[in-house]
Amino acid sequence: MASQVHENVKNYYGSRLETSADLQTNAASCSMPSRLMLKSACEALKLVHPEVCKRFFGCGLIFPDKLEGCQVLDLGSGSGRDCYTLSRLVGEHGHVTGIDMTESLISASQKFIQYHQEKFGYGKPNTVFVQGYLEKLDEAGIHSNSLDVLVSNCVICLCPDKQTVLMEAYRVLKEGGEFHFSDMYASEVVPDSFKEDPVLWGEGMAGSLYWQDFISLVKEIGFSTPYLVAASHIVVHNCQLLKKAGGVKYASGTYRLFKLPKTTLEKKALVTYKGTVLDCAEQLDFDASHTFKTNHAVEVDGEMAAVLQCSRFSTDFSIQMLDTPHQNPLKYCHLSPFRLADRLGASVKQCSKTGGVGGSDGTPSGACDGSGTAGGCGQ
After folding, report:
1. How many helices (H) and strands (E) does the chain have?
2. pTM assigned to the model
3. Deepest of 4, 126, 178, 344, by most Cβ within 10 A of its Cβ?
């Protein structure tokens, strides 16, 4: 299964990168706005062992709501930071599996299973790590229609065969299940020449999908339209990599996709959130375009109605179907991570990962002013 790309990525993350500070972009600094991160997720993240957090290479936060009791799979689990956070959120009766192709990262993450079991007060571990390829989840023992939630954090951009990875994700999800993940996206189709550079691959730049191609691909596979949760611009700190990138820009985007039953009849609906999701008593921030206030009826399109009706959120909403049929939108501009990042003003501008500690105002040492340049390299 291993291709040259797989081997290069294994080497990059298994031996070359010691901490997230070794990355040549601010990808690991990009995160979901704090207002969207649930209190329970914040508290769980604080309990993860510092050694695990040190080798975090993700580009977002992938902790969706209502995970109690869920069966969760982390695609490309790395050091295990997200898995251990999720193991707290699913509770003792839920289960989290992390899969990664890099043996050294699997070994490193396994060392902390007992620590987190005891930290969370569980009678037995609810987390397991397996070595394997995301393109071959069956070989790792991951069965079809077996999982409630899949997550992934800045890993699909490292995979040479994204269609197969996404097809495998679709296969292993239950009907109504969710794929909630963050990844790097390009502002245009990445030139083939990028794919010959191992550093561009390791940084996720060579393998990033053009964001519109991503939407088309997941729709072809059978997923729902992606729902964009959060986004940040990714700033390249290394001037040589910036020159190689040319005019291609990058952003991190967190999306949630759902596997809906094929027989779903999509009609518009009036939905009323009951205020029953943990940490969301007043309102549920579903994504950047949908906020549901408690006891307030809102009209949604047919696909969103199907998502709420068929997913783990079905008991949290009163749903009144309307006679108006759903029509698929022809444009997806509202799903652009670049447009959302612009709207949120979300990016981190700094000269390098190793340029020093942040200032007292939280601005990284060497941070740029509002000119949009970093270390003289520009954006």
Report:
1. 12, 13
2. 0.84
3. 178
